[in-house]
Amino acid sequence: MSIQIKICGLSTPETVDAAIAAGATHFGLVHFEPSPRHVSLEQAAALRAHAAGRAKAVLLLVNADPQLTARAIGTVRPDIVQFHGNETPEWCALVREKAGIEVWKALGMRDAGTLEHSADFIGKVDRLLFDSPAKALPGGTGETFAWGLLHGHRHVIDWGLAGGLSPANVAEAIGQTGAPLVDTSSGVESAPGVKDAGLIRAFCEAAASA
Ligand SMILES: O=C(O)c1ccccc1NCC(=O)[C@H](O)[C@H](O)COP(=O)(O)O
User: Fold this and answer.
1) How many helices, marked H, and strands, marked E, lie in the chain?
2) Quick one: pLDDT band at residue 194, thresholds 50, 70, 90?
3) Residue 177 and residue 169: Cα distance in Å, rounded?
4) Residue of 30, 141, 170, 199 to mutate, ligand 1, most atoms within 8 A of C-beta
5) What is the model's pLDDT at position 201?
6) What CA dihedral angle connects 149, 188, 54 and 175, to 10 degrees?
7) Where are the domains positioned within the chain?
8) ipTM above threshold 0.85
9) Distance between CA atoms of residues 77 and 195, nearest Å
10) Which pLDDT score, from 0 to 100, does residue 205 have?
11) Which atom of ligand 1 has the smallest separation from the CA of 9?
12) Structure confidence at residue 181 (pLDDT)
């Protein structure tokens, strides 16, 4: 099966088009004010409508309360919601059931214990995204983690790899981990929050040829 590619932190119709033209299957819309990639719910809804079924829209929320979660999903109508904070398996399952959309959970890979904890999400989410641990922000850190932590792990649900992926290292990352989906944000930017169409293209080419 061909590799799936998520370009995260898009904020303009031009970069949504660039990602889709390059072969991205998913694009991420970050609704988290401290992030340089933050978009309002109205902006996110417009970008989702702009993509019009050409790629799956992934709405990112971080420890959002129930009211914001409901308003965000109702306004944006994403294909997928990605939780990127300390959301529990039970909360993920509840949102999945009530909203009737895919739910992904990002986990910051510190050590083997993170993988053990990931088992709690089986049956509760549609995909796990293994990312680097939080720094100043919970995601979009631009840092890789030790991919060796995933070696030999028997994945029982869909998953993806994130954290510091770029055109230069994505092929190696796929080769080492066998990731079925790769996700990038800062690796395709010219400055924090500013996506670069050339880098998006280079990333998708490198991922597709791995
Ligand atoms: O990208 C952000 O600014 C962000 C902020 C808060 C929560 C999540 C965020 N991004 C989530 C993603 O899915 C990123 O693509 C992922 O963390 C990888 O980012 P990067 O290391 O910059 O490629």
Assistant:
1) 7, 10
2) very high
3) 12
4) 30
5) 98
6) -30
7) 4-208
8) yes
9) 23
10) 98
11) 1
12) 98
Fold of 4-208: TIM Barrel (3.20.20)
Q: Please give the Cα distance from 78 to 111 (Å, whole number).
A: 31
Do 207 and 22 touch, CB atoms closer than 8 A?
Answer: no
- Whether 1 has a pLDDT exceeding 90, the answer reads no
Distance CA 77, CA 185 (A): 22
Surface-to-core class of residue 190, CB atoms within 10 Å of its CB (0-12 exposed, 13-18 middle, 19+ buried):
exposed
- Tell me how far the alpha carbon of residue 208 lies from the centroid of ligand 1, in angstroms: 21
Residue 56 Cβ inside 6 Å of ligand 1? The answer reads no
For residues 4 and 143, give the distance between their C-alpha atoms in angstroms, rounded to a whole number.
20
User: What is the value of pTM for the model shown?
Assistant: 0.97
Report CA(30)–ligand 1 centroid distance (Å).
8
197-208 vs 13-22: helix axis angle to the nearest 10? 20
155-169 pLDDT per residue, tens? 999 999 999 999 999
- Give CA–CA dist 114/125, Å, rounded: 16
Please give the Cα distance from 111 to 57 (Å, whole number).
30
- The per-residue DSSP string of 34-103 comes to TSTTB--HHHHHHHHHHHTTSSEEEEEESS--HHHHHHHHHHH--SEEEE-SS--HHHHHHHHHHH-SEE
Is the beta carbon of 133 within 6 A of some atom in ligand 1? no
At 31, list the tokens: 């609704």
